Give the backbone structure.
Amino acid sequence: MTRVFSGIKPTGSVQLGNFCGAIGRWVDGLPDAGSPAADQRDQVFCVVDLHAMTVDYEPETLTATTRQVASILLAAGIDPARCLLFVQSHVGGIHAECTWLLNCVAGFGELRRQTQFKDKADGSEHVSVGLFDYPVLMAADILLYDTDEVPVGDDQRQHVELARDLAERWNHRFGNTFVVPRATFPPAGARIMDLQTPTKKMSKSDDSPQGVVRVLDDPAVITKKIKSAVTDSDNDVRHDREAKPGVSNLLEIYAGVTGSSIDAAVTAFSASGYGNLKSGVAEAVVEYLAPFQQRSGELMADPGEIDRILRAGAELAAERANAVLQRTKRSAGLLLP
Ligand code: TRP
């Protein structure tokens, strides 16, 4: 079986783009419930709270967001009977120790060249060593689970490439130790854009709250945001990302949440104006999210149950990661106790 690992940062609340994109792909890839493949738990998903600490943050917010993101994943169908779900810091000692080992083969220059580091460090007054080392911690996450595939967004390409380089370098220096992972990306074009600035990706840590549909937003709020989406002035419903980014985005959202094609979406609305298009899309999104919101509401009402699921996940994760860590330490010549 192909082993899959991916992570989600508990910063900001999950929005429609992550939900239909990353999380949707993770859920679609799960084996059937009760199948032998499900028992293997070869798909591993991690709420990466240690990564969330690399930039300024509020401690209380981190606690709440970590539990919230975990419950969103559970409600979305990341089913602990078919995969492994855990919080990174629950297995933090192992991830941190593996990061140290990898730090000793990672180069200062290659970390300095990481575009995410450059973007985040640029213009900020205080740049933490944690932010600099972020990609090495991410490599440890991936390598500790003998991962074959890492489903990520395009912005994580360089980080997964670094994890590959570190694994290969380690194997070359110390003998075959790590599985060399590869990134997998969503199909081209499958991208939900910001409702207010439809030329940029919808993003959870965004400062344009009106352009971002959060999956836990009230139906009334979702409707209002979609009805205020930026379009254009010709009132002609067609799909053309270049000339009509706003209208095209609405059509793509509609196709995404109803599981239909873009052509079908265009046909459904071509005779109507933008007003009807927007209310149609709003209704479809609200209906799509309703069962999920119901489940996540039930889960969130019982934080003890979420914590129990996460503890069980961490126990299994620790067992697996520790086996890989011991193998790694032995390969490096560390005297095992
Ligand atoms: N850096 C990833 C992001 O911002 C999150 C992440 C951390 C991750 N560790 C990972 C993703 C391991 C995939 C695999 O999206």
Q: What stands out?
A: Residues 5-7, 9, 48, 51, 138, 141-142, 150, 152, 156, 159 surround tryptophan (CB under 6 Å). The chain has two domains: 4-185+303-332, 209-297. The two ends are 33 Å apart (CA to CA).
